[in-house]
Amino acid sequence: MIRHEQLTAAPKVLLHDHLDGGLRPGTVLELAGELGHRLPRTDADELGEWFVESADSGSLERYLETFDHTVAVMQNAEAIRRVASECVQDLAADGVVYAEIRYAPEQHLTAGLTLEQVVDAVREGFEHGMAHAERPIVARQLLTAMRHKARSMEIAELAVAYRDSGVVGFDIAGAEAGYPPTRHLDAFEYLQRENAHFTIHAGEAFGLPSIWQAIQWCGADRLGHGVRIIDDIRYDESAGDDGKVELGRLAAYVRDQRIPLEMCPSSNLQTGAADSIARHPIGLLTKLRFRVTVNTDNRLMSGTSMSRELALLADAFDYTLADVRWFAINAMKSAFLPFDERLAIIDTVIKPWYAEQLG
Ligand SMILES: [Zn+2]
Questions:
Q1: pTM for this structure?
Q2: Binding site for substrate: residue ranges?
Q3: Is residue 353 within 8 Å of residue 35, measured between CB atoms?
């Protein structure tokens, strides 16, 4: 059994976390107060509960409404810097040693900021957060384009322009059904020509075609969620560990190529992509040694943290500290940070801590 304090202390690596999904409730309240933005609750604890309940409700409208409020209070540079700095400090306090945090710059333009000013504000906030965190952390940006909008090329160019200024990659997010990733092929082809990295939200609600397109048409380096890859794996659940497992061509490709899966268990329960932690595909995918990583997605809406996600998994699947280490190293290997910097974190931060604990 892992003690939960041990999970907070353990060095962790986070690849899939949304900046607009991780604000402190108290910060949302204060920023909304300054702007005169009306919120559904006026007490920080109650507001925090409101975010989780709305995300839990099973109604997509109520789920999306939560982001209307967080995005509304992130429209000026000062607010964005504050949210970005607090995000990094909160992750560090939870023992995250490396994080890639994503957001869609195009959603922060309503008060007159330019795309560049948004990226600069996040960069300044991350630098402030790294300098003031209680434990060492490295934080980098991923720039997200919205699948239903037509700005993906512009955002991809922005990611490349800022590749030496804290942006390590590109992502595409938003409703999968009706908006296949191939709609944004020009952006992905541009990024490939620029030797740039990208991940694609695929295979969360929507099934295998979305994963297949993301990898084989768009050339994604990683899969955001990718949980539906389970649909390409045949297994007899009732047979337990002795059951025969058969991988389809796509699942085999994903495993053979070591394509990282950015799995977000609690978030999947809220969106209905999985019905419980115990039955979440992450259990089988981990057993089959896919390149599984554990992530938070939206800490505010899921009321979660990296150590909480790992605690839920450890309780459901009897994971040990050795498994937690495997997740951390998987994620660090899959990061978009340059190879030498990844290796330095693995060799000087992650491995020594676990070696001391595991003996
Ligand atoms: Zn996400």
A1: 0.97
A2: 18, 20, 174
A3: no
